[in-house]
Amino acid sequence: MTGGASSGAFDVVGHYNKLIKEDASISPPVAAVGSLVKLIELQHATTMLEFTMIARSACEKLKAATSNSISLSAGCDVFLQQMSRLSHTQTVDECRRALIRAGTEFVQGAGKCRESVAEFGSPFVRDEQTILVHSYSRVIMGLLARAVKQNKRFRVYLTESRPDQSGLRAAEELRQLGVPCEVILDAAVGYIMEKVDMILVGAEGVVESGGLINKIGTYQLAIIAKAAKKPFYAVAESF
Fold it and tell me: Distance between CA 10 and CA 26 in Å, rounded?
């Protein structure tokens, strides 16, 4: 294999980290696809096997470089599935061009998907409502921002979400929007449950059975919400 750009010629992990750092709104799967698109733009594989190996190697590097690779893996898997479908019917160059086109559309469409979730989800937020949000979710932040633009008045409790304390980031963004909010300990969700009208959580992944993969604490929160007969909604993008 002499024709392909080696992974050393392009730092796919470095490019991924750059995208995440420069755009706080970009999600890991979207950044992963964007990085893989950049990779195949620069590589010059001459066989489909070489082309596939370059992409798979880059995906493995991306997954190994992050401590929480669930959502990132989803982006890599979507990319590889598209490559697999295209590789059976097209030449290497045709496959490269089609993948670049599909990957670019995926990245551009991700923002629209989040906007759609906000549009459909904002009616669930009503005036004088108290909402409990677990951890930090870009999709939930977009939904609540849309509700603010609709001049809805509501209050939010946020779990601190250890160990990374991502709830603090969510609280800061909500305060900038003018939303009254309070950060609570993860262990206090049972105590606070009687004061809330509904619970919102994000999702790192949604499995075929409908189950969620999300930040630690989501399961206990769902159990407590069910026992207290409180509405519990998972807000997630679909790619």
Answer: 21
DSSP letter assigned to residue 210:
S
Q: Return the SS3 of 201.
A: strand
Residue pair 97/122 in contact by the 8 Å Cβ criterion: no
Tally DSSP H helices, then E strands, for the chain. 9, 7
- What is the C-alpha separation between 203 and 224, in angstroms, rounded? 18
Question: What are the structure tokens assigned to 200, written together?
Answer: 């919102």
210 strand-pairing partners: none
Helix (H, G, I), strand (E, B) or coil at 151: coil
Q: Computed from CA positions of residues 21, 23, 25, 30, in that sequence, does the dihedral angle turn out positive or negative?
A: negative
Q: Which two tokens stand for residue 86?
A: 């295209």
Report the C-alpha gap between 170 and 175 in whole angstroms.
9
CA pair distance 109, 67, nearest whole angstrom: 26
pLDDT digits (tens, 9 = 90+) for 32-57: 999 999 999 998 888 888 989 999 99
What token pair was written down for 150?
């609709």
Is the pTM higher than 0.90? The answer reads no
Mind listing the pLDDT tens digit for each residue in 85-133? 887 767 888 888 999 999 999 888 877 888 889 999 999 999 999 999 9
**Prior bond to 163 cis, omega within 30?**
yes
- List, for residues 136-193, the tens digit of each pLDDT value: 999 999 999 999 999 999 999 999 999 889 999 999 999 999 999 999 999 999 999 9
